[in-house]
Amino acid sequence: MKIQNGFTHLAKTAIADFKRNKVRTILTSLGIMIGVMSVVLLIALGLGLKNYIQEQFESLGANLVVIMPGSGFSGEGGGSFGPGFVGGIEFDEKDLRSLQGIAGVDYVVPLFFKTALIEAGSEKEGGYIEATNEEAFEVLNLELLEGEAFTKSDVARKAKVVVLGYVVAEKLFGDPADGVGRTVRVGNQRFKVIGVNKKKGDPEMDNSAIIPYKTSFGGLNPDKTFFTIYLGVALEEDIPFVKEKAKETLLKRYDETEFSVTEQAEILSTINQIFSIINSVLVAIGSISLIVGGIGIMNIMYASVTERTKEIGIRRAVGATEQDILNQFLTESVILSVFGGVAGLALASLIVLGIRVFFPASINLLSVVIALVISSAIGVFFGVFPAKRAAKLPPIEAIRYE
Length: 402
Prior knowledge:
Elements: H1 2-20, H2 22-58, E1 64-69, H3 93-100, E2 105-120, E3 123-132, H4 136-139, E4 144-147, H5 152-156, E5 161-164, H6 166-173, E6 183-186, E7 189-197, H7 203-206, E8 208-212, H8 213-216, E9 228-233, H9 239-251, E10 259-263, H10 264-307, H11 309-317, H12 322-355, H13 365-391, H14 395-400
Parallel strand pairs: 3-8, 5-7
Antiparallel strand pairs: 1-9, 1-10, 2-3, 2-6, 2-9, 4-7, 5-8, 6-7
């Protein structure tokens, strides 16, 4: 009880001093507030990006095996970005036919992808061309807002038809649904819009023009190749078998280092590893602001010791010990830091709430703990030096100080 009363008295004394110097108090806490806000926001944005990418992969069809060029997400050591993550070979129709013969494979979906200018009358918008087959709509969980998707027959006869993403259709036609039945031009080719997808929230898919892959052969895809191939597996327990058979099939044409065969669980595991590292780097960057704020507190507390030299001398003269003076200044420093930390956490939370409307940023328990623990630790660390200086002042000289 005595300890509690002692701390309560120190806290009341510190708050009374802060009230007498409100501007100095606010400016001193501002550095910590900005530092804590930076750390919390960086972690929240990092988690948001991780959540966004996970949502995109989880939105793909179940029991999916992804074949990519280079090492992809299946590098050594459990899946990581390797030297060959980008690069390697490009797949073609011969690979599609070989993979379709694997037992347990429900469907094979190729994907050719490139940036493109999409035009409708006088309107022009930058977007993406995605050349694939009719099964891609199910694999990518695309729902139609208006019209229909192209069919297997459209792919076979190289039909000049296109399904537009919601955003690009909105930009070109105002009301996305009005795009159905209209004509758009991509490169030197004209396509009839037969469908418009519902808004997915993925900038690439929402700004894409999806066409039959055989239609792209020529001007848009002269090499007749694909960047990615998706394999849909009928039963989850067949995934290891399908992965192994897909590797055996592709090894007949390519070296092992030129492609990767990965399942969704491995991709998500790799994403988690990558973002753990990214979050650590972001916290380190944000902590620089905290250090600057801590130095600001130390400077202000040093100035406060000089201003209150006579007060310190009087307190020592009436019985205050060095420990009492040390505790007094240390308490003030910690309160300033915690106040700044809580203010920074509150401000960051408000900003994240605003961002969540557009982006899945989130504040987790780690952010809160870092904010409060680090701000308190900074108060102790940077408050020790000026507090010791105050405690060591000789009482007689302090009273005489002008």
